[in-house]
């Protein structure tokens, strides 16, 4: 008889039971989610924390000993989502991508910029906090990436709709816009806006990859 094997099995079962109990315990409050990002571009990572405060998410960081925080609405149905760290202009200072709402197929984001003292929303050409999306399911093709531009990067956002969802999946085409932005001092300017007309999903104009901004 292999006694060692029995003991091991019993131990694994005990651990599983313990984990089961832990999982069944009621969740009191979502724990804060931390992310490391070099906000000021000095080569040292800062810790950025996002925590739920009622219907909001409070994003806070300490840079060079000074704390900064900003409060944004939270999709309370979905809960806290980790921040994405990006460098939208390739200047070595991180921007933060914050999940604002989560739909069945589409996630909406805004971006934060650290100006040397505080975190503030990245604004679009209209001077309003910029919003962008990823996903779209069958009806749309949405996303973003970053591409090399001059000595840094451009931030490219694709927003397109399926031309005819009644077609077979392999024949879907999308129309919309691919807009490349440059980010300076927390504000986006349009570098290039390219219409997308009835292109298949594998067309380069539709290419998006969030990792391109990491
Ligand atoms: Ca730093
Ligand atoms: Ca940057």
UniProtKB/TrEMBL annotation:
InterPro entries: FG-GAP (IPR013517), Integrin_alpha_N (IPR028994). Keywords: Signal. SUPFAM superfamilies: Integrin alpha N-terminal domain. It holds the Pfam family FG-GAP_3. The keyword Iron-sulfur does not apply. Residues 1-29 form the signal peptide. This is VCBS repeat-containing protein. It comes from Amycolatopsis eburnea. The lineage of its organism: Bacteria, Bacillati, Actinomycetota, Actinomycetes, Pseudonocardiales.
């Amino acid at each position: 008889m292999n006694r060692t094997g029995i003991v091991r099995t019993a131990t694994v079962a005990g651990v599983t039971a313990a984990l089961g109990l832990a999982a069944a315990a009621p969740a009191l409050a979502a724990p804060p989610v931390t992310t490391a990002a070099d906000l000021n571009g000095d080569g040292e990572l800062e810790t950025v924390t996002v925590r739920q405060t009622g219907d909001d998410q409070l994003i806070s960081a300490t840079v060079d000993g000074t704390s900064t925080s900003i409060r944004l609405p939270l999709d309370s149905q979905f809960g806290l989502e980790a921040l994405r760290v990006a460098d939208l202009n390739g200047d070595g200072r991180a921007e933060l991508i914050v999940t604002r709402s989560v739909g069945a197929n589409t996630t909406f984001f805004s971006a934060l910029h650290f100006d040397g003292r505080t975190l503030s929303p990245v604004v679009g050409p209209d001077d309003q906090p910029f919003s962008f999306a990823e996903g779209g399911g069958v009806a749309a093709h949405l996303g973003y990436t970053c591409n090399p531009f001059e000595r840094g990067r451009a931030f490219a956002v694709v927003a397109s709709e399926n031309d005819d969802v009644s077609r077979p999946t392999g024949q879907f085409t999308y129309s919309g816009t691919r807009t490349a932005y440059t980010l300076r001092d927390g504000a986006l300017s349009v570098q290039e806006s390219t219409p997308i007309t009835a292109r298949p999903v594998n067309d380069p104009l539709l290419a998006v990859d969030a990792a391109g901004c990491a």
